[in-house]
Design goal:
Helix content: 25-40%
Shape: globular
Number of helices: 6
Order of helices and strands: HEEEEHEEEHEHHH
Strand order of the largest sheet: 1-2-3-6-5
CATH architecture: Beta Barrel
Oligomer: single chain
Low-confidence stretches: 5-17
Distance between the termini: 57 Å
CATH topology: OB fold (Dihydrolipoamide Acetyltransferase, E2P)
Number of domains: 1
CATH class: Mainly Beta
Length: 164
């Protein structure tokens, strides 16, 4: 009996962790090269979302404003399809966002405006797109050693701290 209830509780806990929020909407604002806001078509709230699998420069970091502008030119006021995988510590939905079927994260990395998001020894999902951008010396990769956003934050703090 205890085993049966234990399994049921474990199942109920696991389901929300795997559930994904999927919706369509219109991009209403672009904060930086990997964060945007989407107004859901279903009349719901505006969602603050971070593109999953990539990391763009901080807005106050060299290349940060250009990265934001590239994402804004591509996505602002456009209709998108969103799949939110989870929420980060800032409450943003971490999402794959598609515009006309194209993955915006992959596009940003391919354009040299972001890195494939690294985690420990994993080079991230867009390692091939990053390699192409580096080889072509596109965007950030026109520099010999562009600084990863995580390294920039370690040295300078966040851009929000710098404004204080």
């Amino acid at each position: 009996m205890i085993f049966k209830y234990g399994c049921l509780i474990a199942l109920l806990i696991a389901i929300p962790a795997q559930a994904k929020d999927v919706f369509s909407g219109k991009v209403s604002h672009v904060t930086d090269g990997d964060t945007l806001w989407v107004q859901a078509h279903n009349g719901g709230r505006v969602h603050k979302l971070r593109l999953q699998g990539m990391d763009a420069p901080e807005i106050c970091q060299p290349g940060g404003q250009v990265s934001r502008d590239v994402l804004a030119r591509r996505a602002l006021h456009q209709e998108v399809d969103v799949t939110v995988s989870y929420r980060d510590v800032y409450g943003r939905g971490i999402a794959t966002i598609r515009l006309n079927g194209d993955d915006l994260g992959a596009e940003m990395v391919r354009a040299g405006q972001a890195w494939s998001y690294r985690w420990r020894r994993n080079p991230g999902p867009y390692v091939a797109e990053e390699a192409l951008a580096r080889k072509a010396r596109r965007g950030l990769f026109a520099q010999d050693q562009p600084e990863l956003p995580g390294d920039f934050r370690k040295r300078h703090g966040s851009c929000h701290q710098a404004k204080r």
